[in-house]
Design a protein that fits this description.
By secondary structure, the chain is an alpha+beta fold. It has a single domain, classed as PH-domain like, CATH 2.30.29. It is built from one helix and four strands; from the N terminus they run αββββ. The chain has a four-stranded antiparallel β-sheet, with no helix packed on it. Strand 2 and strand 3 form a beta hairpin. The longest helix is centred in the N-terminal third of the chain and has 33 residues. The chain is elongated and about 70 Å long.
Length: about 100
């Protein structure tokens, strides 16, 4: 009986350690991506047929950077230079 109890404690302890590591990695990744700049959740769909993907967008001085929500990479998946963005009033789409 004691061996079953010890095995159960080891499994539960391992699961707790894994959960803490995942949470800490997620927190530290988000802090590193933000680097003191505004960061918010943002959905992205590249084409009409793609599904929406949830991610983080960082508003930098010269660019907007979109990062995937999950994963360990700190590099942006998409980057848009502010000089190349056209911010205008929305237009009504006719015939749709």
């Amino acid at each position: 009986m004691p061996s079953v109890l010890v095995s159960t404690e080891i499994v539960i302890g391992t699961l707790l350690v894994v959960a803490v590591v995942v949470l800490a990695t997620t927190y530290l990744r988000r802090r590193y991506i933000a680097k003191g700049l505004p960061l918010t959740l943002c959905g992205l769909r590249c084409t009409q047929t793609d599904r929406w993907r949830l991610g983080l967008i960082r508003f930098g001085d010269n660019a907007l950077e979109w990062h995937t929500l999950g994963g360990v990479s700190v590099r942006p998946k998409h980057l848009w230079l502010r000089q190349r963005l056209i911010l205008d009033a929305p237009e009504l789409l006719v015939g749709r």
